[in-house]
Amino acid sequence: MRVSTNVEGLDQILRGGLISGRSYLIHGPCGSGKTTVGFHFLSGADRALLVTFGEPEESLRADAKAIDLDIGRIAFLDLTPVAAAFGETQTYDIFSPSEVERESVTQRISATIEKVRPQRIFVDGFHLFRDLAADPFHYHRLVQSFFKFATLHDCTLLLASDSADAAAIVDGIIQLDYTRDGRFVRVTKFRGSDFHAGPHPMRLTGAGVQVLPDAA
């Protein structure tokens, strides 16, 4: 079954949208439009969850409102640090900070998924997820277990990252970029389906993201 991205032109490139129950990475530099694509993606579901490691919930809601995207019914899990954390001194007697943080984060994510039962999950700032693991091997294992947990709960995942660290693990990759010639989107991986190769021109408008398929 296909899942619409709700981005004009992008579904056409993907031959009808994403494949339900799989994981997808959208990556590109800061300001390339990753979070806006995530807003579009979530707005098409009755039950959706936005997990944020980067921008706090209030900032994301304000950004969505500025482009008239309705995300009022979307559940949020805000994993950004609170202001009070700056003045706190934490000590770890047995476990490393990354191990303690990892347990807390994974428990909060799993509990929220079980509570919300989302059809779609968008993770903003997914590149920060790697800081929860001590090395690349454990990072890949952590990511794989997260994907399996989410898909077992019938979720379709979209992960926004500044890097392509998880490229080997995900089912599909959407790359965003901008140059002096404009903004572009390119699909570089899409398991289980054909797709229209890029790059394709893309615009950020007052209504969000618009993709202009190039001879698609």
Characterization of this structure:
- The chain is of the alpha/beta class.
- It has a single domain (2-211), classed as 3-Layer(aba) Sandwich (Rossmann fold), CATH 3.40.50.
- 28% of the residues lie in helices and 26% in strands.
- It contains five helices and eleven strands.
- The chain has helices spanning 10-13, 34-43, 57-66, 97-116, 136-152, and strands at 2-3, 18-19, 23-27, 48-52, 75-78, 120-124, 156-161, 172-179, 182-190, 200-205, 208-211.
- The strands form two sheets. It has a nine-stranded mixed β-sheet, with helices on both faces. Strands 1-2 form a two-stranded antiparallel ribbon.
- The longest helix is centred in the middle third of the chain and has 20 residues, at 97-116.
- It is globular, with a radius of gyration of 17 Å.
- The two termini are 21 Å apart.
- The model is unreliable at 92-100 (pLDDT under 50).
